[in-house]
Amino acid sequence: MEFLILGAADTVPTAIGSSLVQLVTFLVLLGALSYFVWKPLKKVMDERENLIHTEIDDAEQRKAEAVRLKEENEAVLRDTQAEISSMMDNAKQQAKKEQEAIIHDANTRANQMMNDAKVDIEREKEKAIRDINSQVSELSVLIAEKMISKEINQEDQKDLISRYLQEAGDK
Amino acid sequence: MEHGTPLWTIDVFGLPVTFDLSTSLMIIVSSLIVFLIAFFMTRNIAVRPTGKSQVLMEVLMNFVKGIISGNMAWKQGGRFHFLALTLILYIAVSNFLGLPFAFVAPDENHTLWWKSPTADPAVTLTLASVMIVLTHYYGVKMRGTKAYIKSYAEPFGFMVPFKILEEFTYNLTLGLRLYGNIYAGEILLALLTTVMMSGAIGFIGGFIPMMVWQGFSIYIGAIQAFIFVMLSMVYLSHKVSDDH
């Protein structure tokens, strides 16, 4: 019985035989290749894929972390700068206040000392004038004694002259 | 040019089953070559590829993955990955085996021992049948019996006979396309060999066509392997995908 398909003298029994051999061999080949070749290869490829995925995820995470840290650092830096400038301002104001206080103190003390000195000078002057007055009166008496060559009571003369002087001073 | 076929018949439960020994031999040789190539190319595999062989195998894997995911979602098609890989490698190697030489025994029948296993219709039709049976199996398994039966009456009820006929034509065309291409290629190679053996003029005249045809046959062998796997995946996706 000739098989319908053009072939090298194929008959139905040979077709069945070839089919069986082909079927069994192919199934064995499929099993062997799957177990020894495809499965290990696929495993390695899947591992690589997973590795790449995790590495990319990791990198993205690190990038986000870096951005966050940078923002944090900038915020800290800004805060610090603000703090420093406010501290500087405070210190300046403090220094100015102290400077003013010191100048004020110095002025006050200087004025005080000037006043004291003026009072002292006044007192010394009055004292000096008093001394001069008494000496002048004594000298006048001496002069008068010499001029009129007459001894008069020294006390009377002193009174008289001081009266004259008083009058002269009033005029 | 007629070639004889080595046959070996045994009785299985009273039925005579005859094995075509050259086809059987070539099936086993082809499978062994495929296995050994793939086996020794993947001995030193690592997450960081160290050799070219691993890269080549991964390229093949991704290529077949591309064929499958071009037809259906990878969630559904992933389970056919190893099958498609084995199929494309086996068919490609089988197609190439008949190209470099043919071994004809020096007996009165000119018994042909070395040829492409895919130059035998029984082999290609077996492979095609396996794929078509798988489409039905996975059609029922992944969509349920109801949806599977209903798919025959879509989009119109009167198409049921055509749809049933279509399943058989798929099987026949899938198998015979591969067989026809490879068998025709081998016949032409055999004819060119006869021309070249005929004498000095024949040798000179046949040399260039021989080279051209062998180069073309390599191309055909690769393309036919690709087409076979591609169409198998198309048929699978028809049965497996929900949107059809």
From TrEMBL, chain A:
Q: Which GO CC annotations does the UniProt entry carry?
A: endomembrane system; plasma membrane; proton-transporting ATP synthase complex
The record's keywords, sorted A to Z, are: ATP synthesis, Cell membrane, CF(0), Hydrogen ion transport, Hydrolase, Ion transport, Membrane, Transmembrane, Transmembrane helix, Transport
* Assembly information from the UniProt record: F-type ATPases have 2 components, F(1) - the catalytic core - and F(0) - the membrane proton channel. F(1) has five subunits: alpha(3), beta(3), gamma(1), delta(1), epsilon(1). F(0) has three main subunits: a(1), b(2) and c(10-14). The alpha and beta chains form an alternating ring which encloses part of the gamma chain. F(1) is attached to F(0) by a central stalk formed by the gamma and epsilon chains, while a peripheral stalk is formed by the delta and b chains.
Single GO MF annotation? proton-transporting ATPase activity, rotational mechanism
The name on file for this protein is ATP synthase subunit b
- Please state the gene responsible for encoding this protein: atpF
Cell compartments where the protein resides: Cell membrane; Endomembrane system
Q: Which domain of life is it from?
A: Bacteria
Q: Specify the protein's topology with respect to the membrane.
A: Single-pass membrane protein
Q: Which family does it belong to?
A: Belongs to the ATPase B chain family.
User: Does the keyword section mention Transport?
Assistant: yes
Q: Where does the sequence pass through the membrane?
A: 20-38
Please describe what this protein does. Component of the F(0) channel, it forms part of the peripheral stalk, linking F(1) to F(0). F(1)F(0) ATP synthase produces ATP from ADP in the presence of a proton or sodium gradient. F-type ATPases consist of two structural domains, F(1) containing the extramembraneous catalytic core and F(0) containing the membrane proton channel, linked together by a central stalk and a peripheral stalk. During catalysis, ATP synthesis in the catalytic domain of F(1) is coupled via a rotary mechanism of the central stalk subunits to proton translocation.
UniProtKB/TrEMBL annotation, chain B:
Q: What does this protein do?
A: Key component of the proton channel; it plays a direct role in the translocation of protons across the membrane.
Which family does the UniProt entry place this protein in? Belongs to the ATPase A chain family.
Instruction: Specify the species.
Output: Salinicoccus sediminis
Q: Does the keyword Membrane apply?
A: yes
CDD domains associated with the record: ATP-synt_Fo_a_6 (cd00310)
- Residues crossing the lipid bilayer are 21-42, 82-102, 122-140, 187-210, 216-236
Q: Chief subcellular site? A: membrane
The record describes its membrane topology as: Multi-pass membrane protein
The protein's name is ATP synthase subunit a
According to its UniProt record, where is this protein located? Cell membrane; Membrane
